[in-house]
Amino acid sequence: MKCKRCKKPAVVGLPSHHTAFCEECFYVYFTRQVETAIRRQKMFTFDERILVALSGGKDSLTLMLALHELGYDVAGLHIDLGIYESSVRARAKVESFCEQHGLTLQVLEMEAEGLPMPDVKEHINRPVCSVCGKVKRHYFNKIAREGNFDALATGHNLDDEVARLFANTLRWDSGYLSDQGPTLPAAEGFVRKVKPLYRLSEFETANYAFLRGIEIHSDPCPFASGASFTSHKELIGELEHRSPGSKFQFYDGFLKRGREAFKMLEKEVGEELSPCEDCGSPTSVEICGVCRVKRAVRDKKAAAAQ
Ligand code: SF4
Ligand SMILES: [Zn+2]
Ligand SMILES: [Zn+2]
């Protein structure tokens, strides 16, 4: 197989684009996809400050490096969830990556916030992953807001977005369908959220991370249930295999033709939000969901210690 751009031997084959690239041309292709995403979805400009959520996985570290090399003003945020050795290793990967590339990094420890995930798992009677996701979104937004960042960027790739869209479509969840997309504009108390890797597949980000020699955290979380869209991703993978390009068409078609329709449906709804009495984050009740979890963990731990 030869590189489509320069005819050197190819190292990455991309059937969905009917093409293949050598290492150098793959970087050019990858960077162009990121630039196109930023431009078409009006994500941010070179004058704006961007906070990048860094889990230590291939997508978030790849995103950080790509944005930094394009010249954007980026800083990283890692949330240390306190999940035993897994969190220690993830944090070490993020810290050494940022040090190696001279990137600014802030680490927020859930232990110090009274919300280490092992305590949440022990004391809260809800699936730990749903609380963990909520906690991460809460702090990403809070730190971005308090640090006056213009946008919060996450490493969601095309496969993540398509699996989520597929799940939302199966349920015809108009609330989520009106809200899903690579750019979510800022709203009262919420910083703009962007996903600059939405045009690139998991295979492509994995190849980029590998070829660039990025040391990633890839151990599964000990609390992972394995349920998070895995079967949807398998189904979609099968569809893509039979009909290359269908993944992107499904998502792009939704952005061009579907999302607006769901936005119209949801226009009337919309709750009054006010700052949480404990932490100042926007909420429709007096104390936001995360602060309520924090209080419950604190009370149950105190009761168990007696
Ligand atoms: S698997 Fe669940 S608990 Fe572990 S980091 Fe992911 S969301 Fe959090
Ligand atoms: Zn080439
Ligand atoms: Zn709160």
Structure at a glance:
The chain has 306 residues and is of the alpha/beta class. Helix content is 51%, strand content 12%.
Compile the SSE list and pairings.
Elements: E1 12-14, E2 19-21, H1 23-40, E3 49-53, H2 58-70, E4 73-80, H3 84-101, E5 105-109, H4 117-123, H5 128-146, E6 151-153, H6 158-170, H7 174-179, E7 183-184, E8 192-194, H8 202-211, H9 230-242, H10 246-266, E9 274-275, E10 282-283, H11 289-305
Helix pairs in contact: 1-8, 2-8, 6-9, 6-10
Q: Structural class, judged by helices and strands?
A: alpha/beta
**Can you identify the CATH superfamily of the largest domain?**
HUPs
Note the run of SSEs as H and E: EEHEHEHEHHEHHEEHHHEEH
Shape: globular
| Relative strand content | 5-15%
CATH class label of the largest domain: Alpha Beta
Could you walk me through the main structural features you see in this protein, from its secondary elements to its overall organization?
This protein is α/β, with parallel strands linked by helices and about 300 residues long. It has 2 domains: about 30-220 and about 225-270, 3-Layer(aba) Sandwich (Rossmann fold); about 275-305, no CATH class. About 50% of the residues lie in helices and about 10% in strands. It has a 6-stranded mixed β-sheet with strand order 5-4-3-6-8-7, with helices on both faces. The protein has a two-stranded antiparallel ribbon with strand order 1-2. Strand 7 and strand 8 form a beta hairpin. It is globular, with a radius of gyration of 20 Å. The model has no long low-confidence stretch (mean pLDDT about 95). Iron/sulfur cluster binds next to helix 5.
